[in-house]
Amino acid sequence: MIRKLLFIRKFKTGDWLIITLTSFLIVLSMFMWWDLPDGKYIEIEKGQSTLGTYSINQDRIILVDGQIGQSQIEIKNGKARIKKSPCRKQYCVHQGWVNKKNQMVVCLPNYVSLFIIGDKKNYDSINY
Amino acid sequence: MTQSIIKISKSDHMIAKLSAIAVALAIIDFFIPSPIPGVKPGIANIIILFTIYKYDFITGVWVSLLRVLVASMILGTFLGPTFFLSLMGAVMSLLSMYFLKDINKAFMSVIGLSVVSSSAHVLGQFLVVRLWIIPHDGILYLLPLFLLSSLIFGVVNGLIVENLLARKLNG
Fold it and tell me: Is the CB of B109 inside 8 Å of chain A's CB atoms?
């Protein structure tokens, strides 16, 4: 058992140095890129058309008539979610709250999607 | 029949043999299932590191670039985006090895070199992805995960090379 653990001895000072440096790089990149900026507005789309842009700081419930029924979108405490949806699988409801810039919730069966945007809209390609 | 002008030296045969092993490992690598697409153990790097330590750096460059070329032809990704990702990764890891290969062996073993080269591979690929394939900052969200996997597999591959070098291999 102890003989098996002897491979630790093969690590020299420089190896430990490099492992430490790489770990530092990993932590640094986590701090740099895992902290996405919060969004400012939410934009609701039905199919290809934009239904409206709402501030994320104003609590409200928006009702959207989609392709197969009515979706309920809730904005609360700087976050947004699809609260109720007529779709069968309820993926959009289970995704829960979103508040980071460029996040989105999409309900494909109902053609309803909501995007979190910062100061301006970043384009992405989405087509029904 | 005209005589072949190109003289095939012993080292050419050696490069061919080593490249063949590297290509085989790269293809095994391709078929290993992974939870995140793109996170791979990079076992072909074992042969590159082994070559650089056992023979010399130029041989390692040959083996590495031949591996990228031949593996991409076999897997059908030649000149596609995957090919350029693989090429950039190989070039970056070779560059990092070039700068670190002459460090005293008593100070740093092949494990360190393995970790550095696999990290350089990941960084090179992210450079290509960010600048060309998916020009969006969102892709950098994955960088810590890829770096972590490069650290883990770098250590494992380094230990394998260490064991390979300690053995007497014939042929």
Answer: yes
Q: How many domains does chain B have?
A: 1
In a domain? residue B3 = no
Question: Is B8 domain-assigned?
Answer: no
SS3 B135: coil
Full residue range of the structural domain in which residue B99 is found: 13-30+40-166
CB half-sphere exposure, B17, CA atoms < 13 A? 10
Point out the least confidently predicted range of A95-99, A108-112, B137-141, B144-148.
B137-141
Query: Is residue B54 classed as helix, strand or coil in its secondary structure?
Result: helix
Query: Taking a contact as any Cβ pair under 8 Å apart, which residues of chain B between 135 and 154 contact chain A?
Result: 136-138, 140-141, 143-144, 147-148, 150-151, 154
Instruction: Report the CATH number that the domain containing residue B68 is assigned in CATH.
Output: 1.10.1760
pLDDT digits (tens, 9 = 90+) for A44-95: 988 888 888 888 888 999 999 888 989 999 999 888 999 999 988 899 899 9
Nearest chain B residue (CA) to A33: B141
Interface touch B159/A15, C-beta < 8 Å: no
B57-112 pLDDT tens trace: 999 999 999 999 999 999 988 898 889 999 999 999 999 999 988 887 788 888 99
Is B147 a member of any domain? yes
